[in-house]
Design a protein that fits this description.
- By secondary structure, the chain is α/β, with parallel strands linked by helices.
- It has a single domain, classed as Metalloproteases ("zincins"), catalytic domain (Collagenase (Catalytic Domain)), CATH 3.40.390.
- It contains five helices and four strands.
- It has helices at about 15-30, 45-55, 90, 95-105, 115-120; strands spanning about 1-10, 35-40, 65, 80-85.
- A four-stranded mixed sheet has the order 1-2-4-3, sandwiched between helices.
- The longest helix has 14 residues, at about 15-30.
- It is globular and about 40 Å long.
Length: about 120
């Protein structure tokens, strides 16, 4: 089972059920049937601070991914910790689905390029 913890501290209403449904669909499509991940919705200032801290770029961004286990083999009985996704609704607006899919694919080890673009198209 996929456990998703959603934390909305953005000040914007978010359809958390739709977010979880899309995330589970992507993970199932990628062969991930069990694991845990967090999805945080943050405001532009927090988004900017996270991007500056982790990527050295001082600007608000649509989504960030912080992978942990990815697809690595894990010892028996150890739950898969996929990592965390951070989305800024004020940056993505109503078009949150594509940045969310992009970030979830990063959790699974995808890097920018044709392979990732092909996978993103599957979940558009």
């Amino acid at each position: 089972m996929i456990e998703i913890e959603v934390d909305n501290r953005s000040g914007v209403d978010v359809d958390e059920a739709a977010v979880c449904d899309l995330t589970r669909r992507v993970l199932a499509g990628e062969g991930i049937g069990a694991g845990e991940l967090g999805i945080a919705f943050v405001g532009p200032e927090e988004s900017r601070a996270l991007k500056a801290e982790h990527l050295g770029i001082d600007e608000a961004t649509d989504a960030l991914a912080f992978p942990i286990d990815s697809r690595e083999a894990l010892p028996e009985g150890l739950p898969r910790q996929l990592g965390d996704v951070v989305v800024c609704p004020q940056v993505v607006g109503e078009e949150w689905r594509a940045p969310l899919v992009h970030a979830v694919l990063h959790l699974l080890g995808y890097e920018h390029g044709p392979e990732m673009e092909a996978q993103e198209a599957l979940y558009a």
